[in-house]
Design brief:
heterotrimer; A mainly alpha; B alpha/beta; C mainly alpha; B: alpha/beta; 3 domains; six-stranded mixed beta sheet; C: mainly alpha; ABC transporter involved in vitamin B12 uptake, BtuC; two-stranded antiparallel sheet; 14 helices; 4 strands; globular
């Protein structure tokens, strides 16, 4: 492999610095730097507050879901239902604060409109988790059930209608600012901080990695395998629900058909670009954010430079392949 | 006589680390040639070069009179080299016929598999081994021993000039070993050569002609088996003087004076059954004693261990822990009750390969390291440091991934995983399997020391000298039932073999 | 001992418990439909059911081969969308060009998958996910994100709209032929056995000297070809290349394969049961339509997805019980 690697490096002529290992270890950051540099040089109006703002508010939802996905992938699983859960949670919220009860008690209504959908999302995660952990259904199949029917439930609830609303306190989730930056960006960072501590400092985190590394060994060593697995699917479900609420808040409208559509792909892509291994055993939480940022920035770069949306899909495909290929090379 | 196989000056390195250097091996036609060496001596690498799995870095291979450059297992098979690998390389979900005939199916019109003919042929091939089974059933529905024989049958059926057997008897019982030896002798008479790799030195004297010893990636000598002894072979593998070993005894247990008075009863099993493979199992384990479980493969030893540790649910009977009738339904519950279980399958059930030595070592201890929802890092490091030193674990540092350690050191880490929970009961299933002779002795010493500190040990080992010298009592099992119990002092290998042979006689 | 060649139903059932569920459910649903609805057994209903589902059947069978090796192909839906556009562009040259053209385009994507998986050693899930995005982007680029109308003057639309010998639509005949061929490949050829062996034991297959890479490449090329064929049928049946179609097809196909009892981990699988699985999922829709037609209850289109999910859930529950018993048996004896 080593000969191939050196051929791959554009700067492979340097004798004083080992580019190969450096790139493999920090591929994501290097890619981010390259994209940023490109944008600063070529994209009109890139260095403006507005650009930053738009990108952060876009990337936050992907990042939040990708972090949940990273935990699931770390146990060797996968969650295809994240987009459907977003739609479900997103459909529930306006139903609650637009209801008669919600109109009569606005504060309570908004609180419930955030809490209850999150509970519903947790329940979806619980459902996935029980299928995977207790019934031993392969994760891709187990989560396929909610992938297929979850969005259907959301559409049944709303009768397929677009729900528009004007509710500033709820919309703060998607449009609020803290220190001049979008609220959901801070939220994503806070979640990342908490999850990072969970992964590195707690027994739960250690068990997550152990299960992904060798499930039978973890179980024979007394690890609560079922509970931990159910736990990661619930976390992933809850984070997806939260992302669904944010999308609804950004748009001041809930569209069950579109909310979170194809999010499972973006989330998996971000997790993988961020360094998660599909077979499990690794949970790079900040990597997931990095992955989400890279994917968002590439999309933005292409759009801002007049490249069609469709081509952006192909670019995304190439990024994913490159990220995994580099990972693969690092392992061998 | 012209050599069938000549390997000369074979070199092989992985990522710059030399695995083989200047290795030579010669096999004559119709010879059964043994290849021995400690783990990591390079036997498997040499075989994989011969069979085209790896590519050699240097040296020459002459097979059947022509210089050979085999680059894939398929080419090796077609050239007449058939291999039975140590870890069964079959497809359990597919039928027996498919496994026997895979890649060589009889065909109609050159395209379509003739299943009728295929089933017939695989029945014929297996019949030569005295196996009469439904060849259409999935291979996985048969015992490991049958699967092993199917693998051998497949290899032999390929009209090979050279059959390589890598630890073929490790999962066979005595009568199946006899069948295998019959096959090997038949091959020799037919002029086929056999390269026979085994840890069980006694076997070599029964069927081999010559033996080549490897050590540290080199071939150190090649002798006629008739002109050597077991002790000499061990000495040659270890690179030590034969006389030293004779004095030191075979194991490190050294428990000559076994004290009469034992401590409290830690564990009592009464009439425990978990299915057809464990039926009415009774045992008592006291503080500071080693109870050995004797028996052949499939006798129910591992099943007994799994029942005690709460892995398999009991269908009958009960287990009493320190006088109270406790239900240990999960490994977690068993661990909380002070049990540890070193599994026989280090790779599949023991190590978490990508995790560090530290994380592997404290895996069972995690619930006790929890401090306010977090892992107490300082305490963790302290414990890990202690055990690395106490057990002499050779690792660069505690953050090194466990997969980079040798088999013996991995096993020590796993042992430390259980010692760290300060267990009352340690269940050790083949604690020295697949580790080299040096590490074996160190592990035996560790077990001896923890028993001296009051731990009760349930010891399962296929190496008879281990339980004969180590155990206070041996419970002998056959087909899931207890047949007899032997008590030390006074147990000899002969006595144990007789006990097993007796059960065989009864069963037949 | 029984005659080894006689077909023993009991033995078949005991060895393929996970395939039993799909046949039982299929027969039950058909009986239910026949008894409850007058027109359920009508030629029109059967033809339209088969016609609509022929694309899913062919994609599912291709997916089945991939899954039997322990892999997965997420790109089939996008590839079908892409090839439907290709077929539409080629339709003026007639079916002789448009059909092979679409299939070749599908094989091209299959080749990309095979290359990423075998040469670059990228896990199938990721490799085909990337191809999915790439094919989708490609379909939108070449079509300008518009549906591309086929040439109605050529014979291309016959495939999806006219009947062979006035009995069955050509598309069904074509798919039926391919399915039978693939059944032969799986059951009767070395290649088919190799496919199963790879899934059952990848390392073992290499050491047995099987041509693992060749068989792996074959399944991805095959899956691509099947998606290409489905794309051609799509364009022919709807009279247009549909760059936006195919979303979620891969998951429907996976569902059909799983409902048919093929193990996702590979090593076990059946072409016939996969077809049954695809038909079963199609029948659920069909029966819902009849139920709506009777007016006793009214399910909106949204309910169909929910009910489909519930159905998948039920089959999975059943299989989880059957296979749990089975794997416990295999484990206990090994």
């Amino acid at each position: 492999m080593s000969t191939q690697d050196t051929e791959m490096q554009p700067g492979g002529t340097s004798r004083t610095f080992a580019w190969g290992p450096f790139l493999r270890a920090n591929g994501g950051l290097v890619a981010l730097a390259v994209i940023l540099l490109f944008n600063i040089l070529f994209t009109p109006n890139f260095l403006q507050m507005q650009t930053l703002f738009v990108n952060i508010s876009q990337v936050a939802t992907i990042a939040i879901v990708a972090m949940g996905m990273t935990l699931v992938i770390a146990t060797g699983g996968i969650d295809l239902s994240v987009g459907a859960i977003m739609a479900l949670a997103g459909a529930l919220a306006p139903l609650i604060f637009l209801s008669e009860f919600g109109q009569t008690y606005p504060a309570l209504g908004v609180t419930l409109a955030i809490v209850l959908p999150l509970f519903a999302a947790l329940a979806c995660g619980l459902f996935n988790g029980i299928l995977v952990a207790n019934l031993k259904v392969q994760p891709i199949i187990a989560t396929l059930i909610l992938f297929i029917s979850g969005r259907g439930i959301a559409q049944v609830l709303t009768n397929g209608n677009l729900q528009t609303f004007s509710n500033p306190s709820f919309s703060y989730l998607g449009t609020g600012k803290v220190l001049g930056l979008p609220f959901q960006g801070w939220l994503a960072l806070a979640i990342a901080g908490v999850l990072y501590l969970v992964v590195t400092k707690t027994t739960f985190g250690r068990y997550v990695l152990a299960i992904g590394g060798n499930e039978r060994a973890a179980e024979l060593s007394g690890g609560p395998v079922k509970r931990v697995k159910i736990g990661v699917y619930m976390i992933c479900g809850a984070l997806s629900g939260l992302a669904g609420l944010i999308v609804v808040a950004i748009n001041s409208a809930s569209d069950a058909a579109r909310n979170g559509n194809l999010m499972e792909l973006d989330a998996i892509a971000a997790a993988v670009v961020g360094g998660a291994l599909l077979q499990g055993g690794r949970a790079p939480i900040f990597g997931a954010i990095l992955g989400a940022v890279i994917i968002q920035l590439v999309k933005y770069t292409l759009l801002a430079n007049g490249v069609e949306d469709e081509v952006a899909l192909i670019a995304k495909a190439l990024i994913i392949l490159a990220a995994v290929y580099v990972q693969q090379a690092r392992k061998e | 006589m012209a050599e069938l196989l000549q390997m000369r000056d074979i070199d092989k390195a992985f990522a710059g680390v030399s695995a083989l250097s200047g290795v030579s091996l010669e096999i004559t036609p119709g010879e059964v040639h043994a290849l021995i060496g400690q783990n990591g001596a390079g036997k498997s690498t040499l075989i994989k070069i011969l069979t085209g799995v790896y590519r050699r870095d240097g040296g020459t291979v002459v097979f059947n009179g022509t210089e050979s450059n085999i680059s894939s297992p398929r080419e090796a098979q077609d050239a007449g080299i058939a291999t039975i690998y140590q870890e069964l390389n079959l497809v359990p979900l597919r039928s027996v016929t498919e496994n026997v005939m895979m890649g060589y199916e009889p065909k109609r019109l050159g395209v379509f598999v003739n299943w009728k003919e295929a089933h017939k042929r695989s029945r014929e091939i297996l019949a030569r081994f005295g196996i009469d089974i439904d060849v259409r059933a999935p291979l996985g529905s048969y015992s490991t021993a049958i699967q092993q024989l199917v693998a051998i049958a497949r290899a032999v059926s390929l009209n090979a000039r050279l059959v390589i057997m890598d630890e073929p008897t490790s999962s066979l019982d005595a009568s199946e070993v006899e069948v295998l030896f019959g096959v090997v002798k038949g091959l020799r008479e037919a002029g086929v050569s056999v390269l026979y790799v085994s840890h069980f030195l006694d076997e070599l004297f029964e069927i081999c002609d010559r033996v080549t010893t490897m050590r540290d990636g080199r071939t150190v000598d090649c002798r006629q088996i008739a002109e050597t002894s077991k002790l000499e072979l061990i000495a040659s593998m270890l690179g030590r003087d034969a006389a030293d070993i004779a004095q030191a005894g075979m194991t490190e247990f050294g428990r000559d004076e076994i004290s009469e008075a034992k401590g409290e009863i830690l564990l009592q099993a009464d009439g425990v059954s978990t299915g057809p493979r464990l039926n009415g199992f009774d045992m008592t384990l006291r503080r500071g004693e080693i109870v050995g479980l004797g028996g052949l493969l499939g006798a129910g030893r591992t099943e007994a261990a799994r029942a005690i540790f709460g892995v398999d649910a009991l269908t009958e009977g009960q287990i009493t822990v320190k006088g109270s009738d406790t239900k240990l339904k999960t490994p977690a519950a068993a661990i909380a009750a002070g049990f540890g279980f070193l599994t026989e399958d280090r790779k599949a059930e023991g190590i978490i390969p990508d995790m560090s030595v530290r994380e592997n070592l404290t895996l069972a201890l995690l619930p006790r390291l929890r401090k306010g929802g977090q892992i107490d890092r300082a305490k963790e490091r302290e414990i890990v440091e202690h055990y690395i030193k106490a057990l002499g674990i050779k690792t660069a540092n505690m953050e090194q991934p466990i997969r980079e350690l040798s088999g013996g050191n991995q096993q020590k880490v796993l042992l430390a995983r259980w010692l760290a929970i300060e267990p009352d009961v340690l269940i050790l299933d083949e604690p020295t399997r697949g580790v080299d002779v040096g590490a074996k002795r160190e592990i035996q010493a560790i077990i001896r020391d923890s028993v001296a500190n009051g731990v009760g040990v349930v010891l399962i080992s296929s190496e008879f000298e281990e339980i004969v010298e180590g155990a206070d009592r041996i419970i002998v099992l056959n087909e899931g039932r207890i047949v007899t119990e032997l008590t030390n002092p006074g147990i000899t290998e002969e006595a144990l073999v007789r006990a097993l042979a007796h059960t065989e006689g009864q069963a037949a | 001992m029984l005659d080894a060649n006689a077909f023993d139903l009991r033995q078949y059932l005991s060895r393929n418990p996970q395939s039993v569920a799909v046949w039982v459910a299929l027969v039950a649903l058909i009986l239910f439909g026949l008894l409850r609805y007058d027109n359920f057994g009508s030629a029109y209903n059967i033809t339209s059911l088969l016609n609509y589902n022929s694309m899913f059947i062919i994609i599912s069978v291709g997916m089945c081969f991939v899954i039997m090796t322990g892999g997965i192909d997420l790109s089939v839906g996008s590839v079908a969308a892409f090839t439907s556009v290709i077929a539409a562009y080629l339709s003026p040259y007639g079916i002789e060009v448009a059909l092979p053209g679409a299939i070749l385009a599908g094989i091209g994507f299959g080749a990309i998958n095979a290359f990423s998986i075998i040469v670059l050693r990228i896990p199938p899930f990721i490799a085909t996910l990337a191809t999915m995005l790439g094919a989708k982007g490609g379909a939108l680029v070449i079509s300008g994100a518009q549906t591309i109308s086929v040439d109605w003057g050529s014979n291309f639309t016959k495939m999806g709209m006219e009947k062979a010998f006035n009995i069955l639509p050509w598309s069904i005949v074509l798919v039926g032929f391919v399915v039978i061929m693939l059944w032969f490949v799986l059951e009767k050829t070395t290649l088919g056995r190799t496919v199963l062996a790879i899934g059952g034991g990848p390392d073992a297959s290499v050491l047995m000297g099987l041509k693992v890479n060749r068989a792996t490449a074959f399944v991805y090329l095959l899956s691509g070809a099947c998606a290409g064929l489905a794309g051609a049928i799509l364009a022919s049946g709807f009279g247009a290349g549909q760059p936006l179609e195919g979303i979620g097809w891969e998951l429907s196909a996976i569902a059909s394969v799983v409902v048919g009892g093929t193990l996702l981990t590979g090593g076990l699988g059946s072409v016939t049961a996969t077809v049954a699985g695809a038909l079963l999922l199609g029948l659920v829709f069909n029966i819902l339509n009849f139920e709506n037609g009777r007016g006793t209850i009214s399910f909106s289109a949204y309910w169909q997805m929910v009910i489909r999910g519930v159905f998948l859930f039920a089959v999975i529950l059943f299989q989880a019980r059957v296979t749990a018993g089975r794997s416990a048996r295999i484990k206990a004896t090994s």
